[in-house]
Design goal:
The complex is a heterodimer of chains A (519) and B (168). Chain A has 519 residues and is an all-alpha fold. Helix content of chain A is 72%, strand content 1%. Chain A is globular, with a radius of gyration of 22 Å. The termini of chain B are far apart. The chains are: A mainly alpha (519), B mainly alpha (168).
């Protein structure tokens, strides 16, 4: 039997994930030598440095030609590198906002940051996975790390409840995904996504029920991971119960990686089977997710819970972009063109490529805005109030503009960005997705998206109103400053505002990043 | 009658007998011990199928590690003999019906399999199911998923310790 050989250069595409795993192992091993009272400030710094290094490598890799790596089990394309970059941004900002959060609770441990790094390594590998088994294992890596992080603080009932709920429902959804993948494998005889395109076309003729059941189950599994309605039930409780920096990582990184894997899997499926099936699937999910997410967020007075519902709504806008990827003219073969081939493409080709760019830009925009907002939430909350249930109440934000004008400005920027109001990055990214959805002909769905995001502005602006127009409540807690939170806020506010005014710098990247392997 | 068939008959019969004991034993410890012997005899059948590696793993992992876990749980919960046979509730009836249904589907499917399985090619027989081949395949072709699984095990271990530690 001929066995393939691997050289050291073959491992280069995995470098961001390797860096994060090494960083995590250093954190785990160094923790052993520390006394209970030793300073642990280096842990967050090491995590941030690792995230920056991995993100820098990802940026370099974005300009590598797209190719299969590790014998076809993974792919290196600008799409996966961009997603790795987004994950690193989320990881770095979440780690910065953990510093003060953990210190106030006396809960600083190396394991916390190590699990964050492990989860991010899983996300980076997930964005690269090109084979169903690898994909599933990486989903589990990031899921199990986030289950443990959710239950990291266990005073009171909320975190245990959140951790347990997340674990049980997450295991269930993984099983659904795995079963769907097994059916697809049974129909096509291969788990490799690139090799699957041909057999899928033959299998759909021979055993349509098997293939459709597999595709729908895989879709349902992913819908749970990205928190799409009607698979969203776990999201508010888990997001509320988890430590706020972990919620930030979940809302940004987990979602980005799950969307990346979903796009890659269904991009393969769309070539083999009728692309109208994924179109119908994602249009329905997008419609339900946008409407339900926004409507449920409106009555929330608990800001953390409101952000959880808002993250569901944002998954809906992203799903609108995913649906726009699969719009085809009657009888047209589904394809996605890279940036260099677009000049000769049809209007639908341009719309689909725009939708892919829109998804990527949206994920970056959402990462900056949501992680920033959760950093703010974690800076304001106090453990003593958690049992009373007022730790995340809107009242916390009353008069913040008089007490900490900088914080209030940052939070206002995040809220405007999440609401999609110019001049913020959130507006630019929403515009890109909505525009490509209209170009693709999904006009009804886009009208629903615009109306529901207009409804969303209400609950985002309510936070701004509380910060700037309400008096400081009597006996308000002292607001401690912490370097980690401050840096996280400055970086994300700068990104939200600057990229909203001058989207240019990452425009070229996005052109490039819309290149998926295997077109 | 060749020796392979005799061995297969013996292993199959013993597997069925001990599997039956798992269900019918009154004490949980006896059930667990019967499960150990079921795993052992199953491993014998794997050897007859040329799946040596699977047989070794079966003994190491299932009959070894997992059974120890079972026994620990039984001892920790301090389970005694079950006093009475339970009455047939709706859930039990549904479970029984599902099991019978699954058996029927399996029987129908297996009856469709052609009886004379083609003999294995000699060059495949030399290395099929051996540890050497498994190792070579795992560490070259399947390296990425293999390393991802290693990462998964590490994460699961760290996560379990984090969740089980004293409250912070």
């Amino acid at each position: 039997m001929n066995l393939p050989t691997l050289s050291l250069a073959d491992f280069f595409p995995l470098l961001p994930a390797i860096l994060m795993v090494v960083g995590a192992c250093i954190l785990l091993l160094s923790e052993v030598f520390l006394s209970a009272t030793a300073s642990r400030a280096y842990q967050a710094v090491l995590t941030v440095v690792t995230a920056v290094a991995a993100g820098a490598v990802a940026v370099v890799m974005m300009f590598e030609p797209p190719r299969e790596v590790m014998l076809g089990f993974g792919v290196l394309d600008p799409f996966s590198s961009f997603l790795t970059f987004v994950v690193c941004v989320g990881l770095g900002l979440a780690a910065l906002s953990s510093v003060g959060f953990l210190r106030r609770r006396g809960a600083e441990r190396g394991e916390f940051y190590a699990l964050m790094l492990f989860a991010s390594a899983g996300m980076s590998l997930l964005a690269m996975s090109n084979e169903l088994i690898t994909l599933f294992v990486n989903i589990e890596v990031l899921s199990i790390a986030t289950y443990a992080l959710t239950a990291y603080l266990r005073r009171g009932t909320r975190p245990s409840e959140a951790g347990f709920k997340y674990f049980i429902l997450g295991a269930f959804s993984s099983a659904v995904l795995l079963y769907g993948a097994a059916l697809v494998y049974g129909a096509t005889g291969t788990t490799n996504l690139t090799a699957m395109v041909g057999p899928l076309g033959a299998a759909i003729q021979a055993q349509p029920a098997l293939v459709y059941a597999g595709v729908v189950l895989v879709g349902a599994g992913f819908a749970f991971k990205v928190a799409a309605v009607p698979f969203h039930m776990w999201t508010p409780d888990v997001y509320e119960g988890a430590p706020s920096p972990v919620t930030a990582l979940m809302s940004a990184g987990v979602k980005a990686a799950a969307f990346a894997a979903m796009v890659r899997v269904f991009f393969t499926m769309g070539q083999g089977i009728d692309p109208r099936l994924p179109l119908a699937l994602f249009s329905t999910l997008a419609f339900l997710t946008m409407v339900v997410g926004n409507l449920m967020a409106i009555p929330q007075r608990n800001v953390k819970r409101m952000l959880a519902y808002s993250s569901i709504a944002h998954a809906g806008y992203l799903l609108l972009g995913v649906a726009a990827l699969f719009v085809t003219a009657p009888g047209e073969q589904f394809r996605l063109l890279g940036p260099s081939e677009l000049t000769g493409g049809s209007p639908l080709d341009i719309a689909r490529a725009g939708a892919l760019r829109g998804i990527l830009y949206y994920l970056l925009a959402y990462t900056f805005s949501a992680v920033g907002a959760f950093a703010m939430v974690s800076a304001l909350e106090r453990r003593e109030d958690e049992e009373k249930g007022t730790a995340w109440d809107l009242e916390r934000f009353s008069g913040l503009a008089q007490r900490r004008p900088g914080w209030a400005f940052a939070m206002a920027a995040f809220m405007l960005s999440l609401g999609g109001i110019p001049p913020t990055i959130g507006f630019m990214s929403k515009l890109l997705i909505f525009q490509s959805a209209v170009d693709a002909g999904l006009i009804g769905l886009t009208i629903v998206a615009v109306l529901s995001s207009a409804a969303g502005v209400y609950y985002y602006l309510r936070v701004v109103v509380y910060m700037f127009m309400r008096p400081v409540p009597e006996g308000a807690q002292v607001l401690e400053r912490n370097w980690g939170t401050e840096v996280a806020l400055v970086v994300s506010t700068a990104a939200v505002v600057v990229l909203g005014i001058i989207p240019g710098p990452i425009g070229a990247w996005l052109e490039q990043a819309g290149t998926l392997f295997g077109r | 009658m060749n020796i392979e068939l005799i061995l297969f008959g013996a292993f199959a019969l013993l597997t069925l007998l001990s599997a039956g004991m798992v269900i019918f034993a009154r004490s949980p410890i006896n059930s667990a011990m019967a499960l150990v012997s079921t795993f052992f005899f199953l491993a014998g059948i794997y050897v007859l199928l040329w799946a040596h590696t699977v047989a070794v793993l079966q003994v190491l992992v299932y009959a070894g590690a997992i059974m120890v876990l079972f026994l620990f749980v039984i001892m920790l919960l301090n389970l005694g003999e079950s006093p009475t046979r339970g009455r047939p509730t709706l859930a039990r009836l549904a479970g029984g019906a599902a099991t019978v249904g699954l058996l029927a589907v399996l029987v129908v499917t297996l009856l469709k399999v052609p009886g004379d399985v083609p003999a294995m090619a000699p060059e495949a027989q030399a290395s099929f199911g051996t540890m050497a081949l498994l190792g070579q395949t795992l560490f070259t072709q399947w390296l990425l998923p293999f390393e991802a699984v290693s990462l998964l095990l590490l994460v699961a271990m760290v996560g379990a310790v984090v969740v089980a530690k004293s409250r912070i």
